[in-house]
C-alpha cells in the first residue's frame, strides 16, 4: 500500500509523542513492504506571502515532506478569523490536495489533527483518498489540546461549551489569567455576567463564542469523514463517543513498545540513594514541578536524588521556573535531552518513576516503558493513567496537582521495604509494536477496501 501519514511536526527538531508515533508507524510500514511517507509542518512563522513552501528529505529511511508557512501573513482581520486559520488552513488544504492528487496514495493517515487541521481531511476527501485518524489528544474540541485551562483548571472531557473556550482564549492573556487565579469565585461571577448580558458583545465576546462554536461544528464534521478513527486509550473511546462520534468507527489500539533499539541497561548501582526519576517533556502540563515539591517534603535518612530527563528548550520559560524552584537543592538535576535508545539505561537508574501529569494523558509512553523496565510507577489519578495503573496493585496513584499526596505515595516506597517488589510483580505484559502495527495495518486494509467498494 501507498500510505501518506500527516502529523503536525516531525523529528529531528520535534520529538514528542505524536511525532515519534508518526516516525515509528512509517518506519514499521516501510519495513513490512508498504510505501509510507510523512508530511509535517516545520515552521509556522516562515514562508511565502501566500501558501506554503515545502522541502522533501529523508529522516532515517522515511521520506518526509516538510511544510513551512507564515501564519502572520494570513488574511485574518478579526480574532475569529485567526482562530479559523488555526484549525482550517486553506494553504495546507491546497498543498495537500495537490500532493495527494499527484502521488495517489491508497490511504491518508492523520495523527492528532493539530496544525494540519480540517483542511487535511478535506483535501483527502477531495482527492478521493480514504482517511484514517489517530487521536492522541483532545484537539478536535480543545484548541489547547490538553483540556487544561491557562489557570490550571481541567475542563470537562465530555461536555462542550463554546463559552468556556472563549473564556480560556481570553485567560491566555496575563491580566485575565492572574485575576482568575487570585479570585476564582469572583472571576466565575464576572464571566457569567459577561456571557449573559450585552457586556460580552461590547468586549467582542459574542464573536469569539460563535467562532468556537463554529470550530467545534466544523472539526466534528471533518472527523466524521474519516473511514476509521484510532484511539490509543479506552478513555478516548468514551470521550469521543460522548461527543457524538459513532462508536463503531472508533478502534481501540493501545501503545505498542518498540524496544529493538534500546541499549542494554547496566545493573542498578547499590549506592544507597533513593532515586526518583522523571522522563518526558519538560512543560507545565506535565507537572514536573510537583515532583520537585514532593522531594523537599520526604522524610528519610537515605540520600535522595531526583533526575529529570527531557528537552529543556521546548518550554524555556517553564524550565527557568523549574530551575528557580529547585535552586540550591543539589539533589535535583535536570539531565537534558535523551535518545530513545537510552530509555532502558535511564530507567535502570531509578527506584521509582513519577508521571505527574496535570492532564488526561493518552497513554503515556513512559508508563509502558517503565512497566517494560519493571520499575514502580507513581502517577496521577486521572484517566488514562488510572485505567492502566491499579492503585496499590501494579503502581501508585496520587491526586492530580497535589504535591502532598505525591509525597505520601513516595514516602510509602521508602518506608515499606516490600512494596516496590509487590507492585512490580503485578505489572502486566507490555504490548509490543508488532501487535499494534498489525492491528493498524488491518485498519488500513479495511479502510482501503471500504473505499473501493
Write the layout of secondary structure elements.
Layout: E1 2-7, H1 17-31, E2 35-43, E3 53-59, E4 62-68, H2 79-87, H3 90-103, E5 107-111, H4 118-126, E6 131-134, H5 162-171, H6 174-182, H7 184-196, H8 199-202, H9 205-224, E7 228-231, H10 234-242, E8 250-252, E9 274-279, H11 288-297, E10 304-309, H12 316-326, E11 332-336, H13 343-347, E12 352-355, H14 365-372, E13 377-380, H15 385-388, E14 396-398, H16 403-415, H17 419-425, H18 433-452
Parallel strand pairs: 1-2, 1-5, 2-4, 5-6, 6-7, 7-8, 9-10, 9-12, 10-11, 12-13, 13-14
Antiparallel strand pairs: 3-4
Helix pairs in contact: 2-9, 3-4, 5-9, 6-7, 11-16
Highlighted features:
453 residues, alpha/beta, Rossmann fold, 3 domains, 8-stranded mixed β-sheet, 14 strands, 42% helix
Task: Describe the structure concisely for a colleague.
With 453 residues, the chain is α/β, with parallel strands linked by helices.
Amino acid at each position: 500500500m501507498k500510505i501518506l501519514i500527516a502529523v503536525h511536526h516531525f523529528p529531528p527538531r520535534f520529538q514528542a509523542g505524536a511525532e515519534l508515533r508518526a516516525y515509528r508507524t512509517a518506519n514499521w510500514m516501510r519495513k513490512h513492504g508498504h510505501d509510507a511517507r510523512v508530511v509535517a509542518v516545520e515552521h509556522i512563522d516562515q514562508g511565502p506571502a501566500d501558501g506554503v513552501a515545502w522541502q522533501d528529505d529523508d529522516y532515517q529511511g522515511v521520506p518526509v515532506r516538510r511544510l513551512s508557512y507564515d501564519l502572520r501573513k494570513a488574511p485574518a482581520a478579526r480574532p475569529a478569523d485567526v482562530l479559523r486559520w488555526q484549525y482550517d488552513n486553506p494553504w495546507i488544504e491546497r498543498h495537500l490536495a495537490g500532493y495527494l492528487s499527484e502521488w495517489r496514495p491508497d490511504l491518508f493517515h492523520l495523527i492528532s489533527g493539530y496544525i494540519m487541521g480540517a483542511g487535511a481531511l478535506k483535501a483527502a476527501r477531495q482527492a478521493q483518498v480514504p482517511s484514517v485518524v489517530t487521536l492522541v489528544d483532545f484537539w478536535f474540541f480543545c484548541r489547547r489540546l490538553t483540556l487544561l485551562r491557562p489557570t490550571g483548571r481541567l475542563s470537562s472531557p465530555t461536555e462542550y461549551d463554546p463559552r468556556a473556550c472563549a473564556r480560556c482564549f481570553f485567560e491566555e492573556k496575563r491580566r485575565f489569567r492572574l485575576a482568575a487565579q487570585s479570585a476564582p469565585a469572583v472571576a466565575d461571577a464576572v464571566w457569567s455576567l459577561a456571557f449573559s448580558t450585552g457586556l460580552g458583545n461590547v468586549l467582542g465576546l459574542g464573536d469569539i463564542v460563535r467562532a468556537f462554536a463554529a470550530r467545534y461544528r466544523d472539526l466534528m464534521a471533518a472527523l466524521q469523514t474519516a473511514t476509521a478513527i484510532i484511539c490509543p486509550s479506552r478513555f478516548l473511546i468514551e470521550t469521543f463517543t460522548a461527543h457524538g462520534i459513532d462508536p463503531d468507527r472508533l478502534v481501540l489500539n493501545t501503545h505498542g513498545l518498540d524496544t529493538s533499539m534500546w541499549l542494554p541497561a547496566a545493573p542498578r548501582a547499590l549506592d544507597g540513594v533513593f532515586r526518583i526519576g522523571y522522563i518526558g517533556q519538560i512543560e507545565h502540563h506535565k507537572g514536573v514541578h510537583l515532583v520537585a515539591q514532593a522531594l523537599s517534603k520526604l522524610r528519610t535518612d537515605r540520600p535522595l536524588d531526583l533526575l529529570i530527563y527531557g528537552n529543556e528548550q521546548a518550554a524555556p520559560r517553564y524550565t527557568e521556573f523549574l530551575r528557580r524552584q529547585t535552586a540550591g537543592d543539589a539533589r535535583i538535576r535536570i539531565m537534558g535531552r535523551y535518545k530513545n535508545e537510552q530509555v532502558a539505561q535511564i530507567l535502570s537508574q531509578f527506584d521509582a518513576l513519577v508521571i505527574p501529569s496535570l492532564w488526561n494523558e493518552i497513554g503515556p509512553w513512559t508508563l509502558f516503558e517503565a512497566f517494560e523496565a519493571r520499575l514502580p510507577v507513581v502517577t496521577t489519578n486521572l484517566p488514562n493513567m488510572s485505567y492502566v495503573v491499579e492503585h496499590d496493585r501494579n503502581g501508585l496513584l496520587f491526586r492530580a496537582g497535589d504535591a502532598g499526596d505525591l509525597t505520601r505515595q513516595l514516602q510509602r516506597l521508602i518506608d515499606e521495604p516490600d512494596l516496590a517488589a509487590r507492585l512490580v510483580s503485578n505489572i502486566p505484559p507490555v504490548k509490543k509494536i508488532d501487535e499494534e502495527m498489525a492491528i493498524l495495518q488491518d485498519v488500513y486494509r479495511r479502510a482501503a477496501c471500504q473505499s473501493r467498494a
